Each structure stands twice: as structure tokens, then as C-alpha cells.
Amino acid sequence: MALQKAQRAEKAARERLRAAEEAYRAAERQVSGMANLRYQTGGLDLPNAVMGRDLGEAAVLEQLAAQRAAELAGYARLRDEHRKADEEAGRLIKQIQRQAEDVDQERRKAERLIDRIKDRLDRLVPPVPGRRAGGGFAPELPTGADNITPRTRLMREEIKDRFPTGFPVGCFRADGGGGEHPLGRACDFMLSSGGVMPSADKVELGNEIAEWAIRNGGRIGVKYVIYRQRIYNLSNPGWRPMENRGSITANHFDHVHVSML
């Protein structure tokens, strides 16, 4: 990927820049020391300052002069390398920023496309039974071997087709207390088994199931959704916290509960 390649190049450029900075500082200290020594000796070369002009040997002077020239040239070269490394790192950072903006733009396009696909899939949800001409839904009785209402059955099959969890879906339950399970008007879409907290990907899947049920609830007759100790009533939109019932399952952390009208 171009962005990853640019990021690797930018990292290498920063490493070269650090090395150039260290060499530049070392050369700077060396040249500064030479200048300081020259100042302290009143501008004399080191052999002349120690031995006097008459005792200085030409060969030594030439060698020291050549060494000083080489050090100054090395200092200039390191200074230029430092500047080039700094410019290259800056250029690569700008390139990465541009490519990151391109990636972000492509991500937004993909998200819009996904939203359009979701909308089209939602339009394919078949008409639910019991829909009244003036709005609302007529009461239904459970039917069939699974002992649930036709609307509940349609909701269950639509969610199972779109969001397979890999765990059982429980609907009718005779001992469901005062809720919709004994009436055949509710299903639990399990995200784990044995009262175990679901994995992160299953938690996100539960969010998607709950979102779908809420988004399509007005068309298919959803009454409310419970998930992760929160309840969303379609007649009074918005998630609201629920009291602690004492366990992962009772607090709906391991499943999404969907009740129907």
C-alpha cells in the first residue's frame, strides 16, 4: 500500500535525520573547539604557539592545516546532509498526510456505500402480517410448532438471515414471567453460551442486531429492544438504562432481546 510505503520511508528519513543531527553536533563542537583554541593563542597555529615560528616545521604545519581544512569541509558536508535529511523528512510527512486524507476519503465513500446497501436490504423486508391501514398492528396469536406469532417469526428469520450469531435463538418460553416470551412475541438472539460474556466481535454483532431491529421496528412491529442492561422502546425512542438483575444473562449482556407488538 502506498501509504504504508511512505510511512516506512518517512521513518527511515527520520532515522537518517537523527544520525545527521548527532554527526552535525559533534562536528560543530569540534569546529567550535578549534576556533576557541585559535582565539586563545591570538590567531597562531598550534605548533607556532608552542614552539615559536622559528621552530615550527613546515611538514607539521601543512599536516595540521590540511586536517583543519578537512574538518571544516566535513562540518559543511554534515551541515548539508542535516539540512537535506530535514527537508526529506518534511516532504515525506506531507506526502503521508495527503495519502492519509485520501484513505480517509475512501473510507467515507465506503461507509456511504455500506449505508446505501443496508437501506436497500431493509427495503427487501417483506410486509408483516397484521398491519392496519391507518397504522399500528392488529393483535396476533401464536401459531405453528414454535408457538410464536407470524410477526415474531418474520422478525426472527430476517435477523437470523442477516446476522448469524452461531448460537441458538430462543423465542417462546412458558416460564418467561410477565414479558412477551410466553405470548410468543419475543426472541433472544444469543451471542455466547452458558452466561459467558461475549467476545468483542460478538458484542459488536449484538449492536448491529439491535440497530437493525430499531431501524426497521416501525415497519415490522417491534415493541422494544433490550441489550446490555439498556432498553429501547419504539414508542419512546432512545436507549435507557435498566436496573441490575444480578447476572450476565438477566442483564442481557449475552443476548439481544426483541419484543414484538
Brief overview, please?
The protein is α+β, with helices and mostly antiparallel strands and 261 residues long.
Q: What do you see in this structure?
A:
The protein has 261 residues and is α+β, with helices and mostly antiparallel strands. The chain folds into 2 domains: 2-123; 150-260, no CATH class. The chain is 56% helix and 11% strand. It contains 5 helices and 6 strands. The chain has helices at 2-40, 46-51, 58-123, 150-162, 200-220, and strands at 169-170, 186-190, 222-226, 230-233, 236-241, 255-260. It has a 6-stranded antiparallel sheet, with helices on one face. The protein is rod-shaped, with a radius of gyration of 38 Å. The two termini are 50 Å apart.
Features:
alpha+beta, 2 domains, 261 residues, 5 helices, six-stranded antiparallel beta sheet
Per DSSP E runs of 2 or more residues, the count of β-strands stands at: 6
| Unreliable spans | none
Share of residues in strands: 5-15%
Largest sheet: 6 strands, antiparallel
Summed up, the domain count is 2
pLDDT averaged over residues: 82
Count the DSSP helices. 5
Strand order of the largest sheet: 1-2-6-3-4-5
Give helix % range: 55-70%
